[in-house]
Amino acid sequence: MSKYSNYWAIIIILLQTFFILMVNHYVYIEKSFYALERLLPYIDIIIAVLTVLIILSIKKHEENTKKITEVSLLKEHLSNIETLLTLLQSQKHEHTRHIQTLQAMIYLGEIEAAESYLEELVEEYWYLQDTIQVGHPALTALLNTKQQVGESKGIEFAFNVKCDLSRLHVNSWELCSILGNLIDNALEAVLPLKGKKRVSVEIKKENGYINFYVSNSGVTISEKNSTKIFNAGYTTKLSEARGYGLHLVKKLVSKYNGNIKVILKEKTTFIVSIPVKGDKGDKKAVLSSGASH
């Protein structure tokens, strides 16, 4: 049904148009009001039924589009986790190999060589000190993956988590859909820019809300479009899923009594605010990779 819902809607509209034209034919061409009087009750019923079917078809199409978008986002979330697990497994394998090499050097009495090897390892793997651990497994996977994606495209990706996320009662995949959409849009927006390309994410608690700041260098949205970007299906890109991405973000944020806004100044910043349960101060502040917002 989902595959052919558009065709059914078109067929129903054409049938409705046919019956309306038939009524006009009897009135203006045949001028047969007697025949029309006999058929009119049936025609009214048919048109009413067709109208209901059109409404149901449109509603079904919207539901199918939403499901397709949600499945796409869920697949992306699972892909993020898979990428992180692959990275961790690769690092574990590399660490095991290096430890075995050092062990062999020490066993053979090559102490200076072992020291030199260890210094090279420290220099090579210095970035692992910034491995993200934000106290939220799903966000850990998302942010690690997006950082790799950004760096692979020559985009500086920085993030800073300044609060405890344990009181943020948001479904993990929905939270990743919210942040993932905003980050993807930011990464895509800076790709065509000349000069320094930068995307930053900052998460902090302010006045009983967890605020998510997703910024990218440059004003990549016009003032005119800033009022339309949250509408279902609106997009300046070729991907229909992207057209429903920000609309889905807004719906998910509203589901948790939050709000979203965009600020256009020297850079483009999306701010998502979601209320948290309890406001007794953070038990810990989890710092992540890169500079702050």
From TrEMBL:
<dbReference type="InterPro" id="IPR036890">
    <property type="entry name" value="HATPase_C_sf"/>
</dbReference>
<feature type="transmembrane region" description="Helical">
    <location>
        <begin position="7"/>
        <end position="27"/>
    </location>
</feature>
<dbReference type="InterPro" id="IPR039506">
    <property type="entry name" value="SPOB_a"/>
</dbReference>
<dbReference type="InterPro" id="IPR003594">
    <property type="entry name" value="HATPase_dom"/>
</dbReference>
<keyword id="KW-1133">Transmembrane helix</keyword>
<dbReference type="InterPro" id="IPR005467">
    <property type="entry name" value="His_kinase_dom"/>
</dbReference>
<feature type="transmembrane region" description="Helical">
    <location>
        <begin position="39"/>
        <end position="58"/>
    </location>
</feature>
<feature type="domain" description="Histidine kinase">
    <location>
        <begin position="69"/>
        <end position="278"/>
    </location>
</feature>
<dbReference type="GO" id="GO:0016301">
    <property type="term" value="F:kinase activity"/>
</dbReference>
<dbReference type="GO" id="GO:0042802">
    <property type="term" value="F:identical protein binding"/>
</dbReference>
<dbReference type="GO" id="GO:0000160">
    <property type="term" value="P:phosphorelay signal transduction system"/>
</dbReference>
<keyword id="KW-0472">Membrane</keyword>
<dbReference type="Pfam" id="PF02518">
    <property type="entry name" value="HATPase_c"/>
</dbReference>
<keyword id="KW-0808">Transferase</keyword>
<protein>
    <submittedName>
        <fullName>GHKL domain-containing protein</fullName>
    </submittedName>
</protein>
<keyword id="KW-0902">Two-component regulatory system</keyword>
<dbReference type="Pfam" id="PF14689">
    <property type="entry name" value="SPOB_a"/>
</dbReference>
<keyword id="KW-0812">Transmembrane</keyword>
<keyword id="KW-0418">Kinase</keyword>
